């Protein structure tokens, strides 16, 4: 079996946004809290008990739990809390791989003599996160990334679960197939139709049979995970493959001008982050979610990598115009954009004429103003008086 010889922790903050709100406002503790208005960005466990879930429409959520307390998102507070928690992670071990704003893998191999066994390290991490940041965190411990993440999901909320090396399959196989990475509603339905409902039942299938059911990539992937084969190590300092941002729009109707202005605002933000990271991008990806909860992506790849706002905005606008018939027919609840095919800025090919540096100079000047006075210090005229939607973090690739 291809598994790591070293214990891995998967640390995952519980109902992160809602937990930050409950931490900062004692009146919210123990009560159902919804973060976000038109669309639920996060729900406390008290709200989840009523069936409220992330990405649900706000009106529907309040029908399910009329006494829920709705609070607006505070992204700066969540970012600060995330940075503080990641300091706790790095105080635990230097081998930290962040997955998103609220979760990470930690390699604690080699710490036994100085810090104790992995369950003790995990208990200490949880205690430090609560004492230093004021937030509950769940930790799963196993020999593979996959199983550590499954363990933390099973242990939620505010729990700790260690999967012993000699009982890995005993723990994994009774779980529903939805616990396998990559099994969403469509794949689960295919497996359920064949009477396959547990991970153990997947494991008993030959790899060839799974490939014939799900296709080569998905079949081989699930066959490996069902046997807990996951050789991936914790990767420290892994550079992001994309940079993105998205806005939840609720269900009100949006005109093309509204969406164009919002798209420009999103591009302004992600290109600023791109330049701050000293990266350049070749591919622009437009992400859409419709009122029926289906999604679509469209992408355009440039000839040369760039960090210039206007070049990337032009590509994004072309994608939006092409997608407008879908948006008109199906309605839109989320608009997002990401920049991919990233490279270091020193790989940008200089284009003639070299003296034509006005776009880059303007970008640099605007970045300087926003760095000094805040992101809201300068905005596009098209955004004045418009509902900007609610920012929703786009998880890193």
Layout: helices, strands, pairs:
Elements: E1 8-13, H1 16-24, E2 33-35, E3 42-43, H2 45-48, H3 58-64, E4 69-71, H4 75-92, E5 96-100, E6 103-107, H5 112-115, H6 118-133, E7 137-142, H7 145-155, E8 160-162, H8 168-172, H9 185-193, H10 199-203, H11 207-214, H12 216-226, E9 242-248, H13 256-276, E10 279-290, E11 295-306, H14 309-330, E12 332-340, E13 343-344, H15 358-373, E14 390-392
Parallel strand pairs: 2-4, 7-8
Antiparallel strand pairs: 1-6, 1-7, 2-3, 5-6, 9-12, 9-14, 10-11, 10-12, 10-13
What does this 3D model show about the protein?
- The protein is α+β, with helices and mostly antiparallel strands and 397 residues long.
- The protein has 4 domains: 8-14 and 76-169, Alpha-Beta Plaits; 16-75, MutS, DNA mismatch repair protein, domain I, CATH 3.40.1170.60; 173-226, DNA polymerase, domain 1, CATH 1.10.150; 242-392, DNA polymerase, Y-family, little finger domain (Dna Ligase, domain 1, 2-Layer Sandwich).
- It is built from 15 helices and 14 strands.
- Strands 9, 10, 11, 12, 13 and 14 form a 6-stranded antiparallel sheet that branches.
- Strand 7 (137-142), helix 7 (145-155) and strand 8 form a beta-alpha-beta unit.
- The two termini are 27 Å apart.
């Amino acid at each position: 079996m291809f598994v790591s010889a070293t214990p891995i922790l998967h640390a995952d903050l519980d109902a992160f946004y809602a937990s930050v709100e409950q931490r900062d406002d004692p009146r919210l503790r123990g009560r159902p809290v919804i973060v976000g208005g038109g669309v639920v960005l996060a729900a406390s466990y008290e709200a989840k008990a009523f069936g409220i879930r992330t990405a649900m429409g706000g009106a529907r959520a309040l029908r399910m739990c009329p006494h829920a307390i709705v609070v607006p998102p505070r992204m700066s507070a969540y970012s600060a809390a995330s940075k503080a928690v990641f300091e706790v992670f790095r105080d635990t071990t230097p081998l930290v791989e962040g997955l998103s704003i609220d979760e990470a893998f930690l390699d604690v191999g080699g710490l036994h003599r100085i810090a104790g066994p992995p369950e003790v390290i995990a208990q200490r991490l949880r205690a430090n996160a609560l004492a230093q940041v004021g937030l509950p965190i769940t930790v799963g411990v196993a020999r593979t990334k996959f199983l550590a993440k499954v363990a933390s999901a099973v242990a939620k909320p505010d729990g700790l679960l260690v999967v012993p090396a000699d009982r890995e399959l005993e723990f994994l196989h009774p779980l529903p197939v939805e616990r396998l990475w990559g099994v969403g509603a469509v794949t689960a339905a295919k497996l359920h139709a064949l009477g396959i409902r547990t991970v153990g039942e997947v494991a008993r299938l030959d790899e060839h049979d799974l490939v014939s059911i799900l296709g080569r990539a998905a079949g081989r992937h699930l066959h490996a995970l069902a046997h807990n084969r996951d050789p991936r190590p914790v990767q420290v300092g892994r550079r992001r493959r994309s940079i993105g941002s998205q806005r939840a729009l609720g269900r009100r109707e949006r005109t093309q001008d509204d969406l164009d202005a919002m798209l420009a605002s999103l591009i302004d933000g992600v290109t600023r982050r791109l330049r701050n990271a000293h990266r350049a991008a070749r591919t622009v990806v437009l992400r859409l979610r419709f009122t029926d909860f289906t999604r679509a992506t469209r992408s355009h790849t440039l000839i040369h990598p760039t960090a210039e706002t206007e070049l990337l905005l032009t590509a994004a606008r072309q994608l939006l115009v092409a997608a407008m018939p879908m948006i008109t027919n199906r309605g839109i609840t989320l608009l997002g954009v990401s920049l991919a095919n990233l490279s270091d800025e020193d790989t940008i090919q200089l284009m003639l004429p070299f003296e034509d540096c006005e776009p880059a100079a303007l970008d640099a000047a605007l970045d300087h103003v926003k760095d000094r006075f805040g992101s809201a210090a300068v905005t596009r005229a098209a955004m004045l008086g418009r509902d900007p939607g609610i920012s929703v973090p786009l998880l890193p690739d």
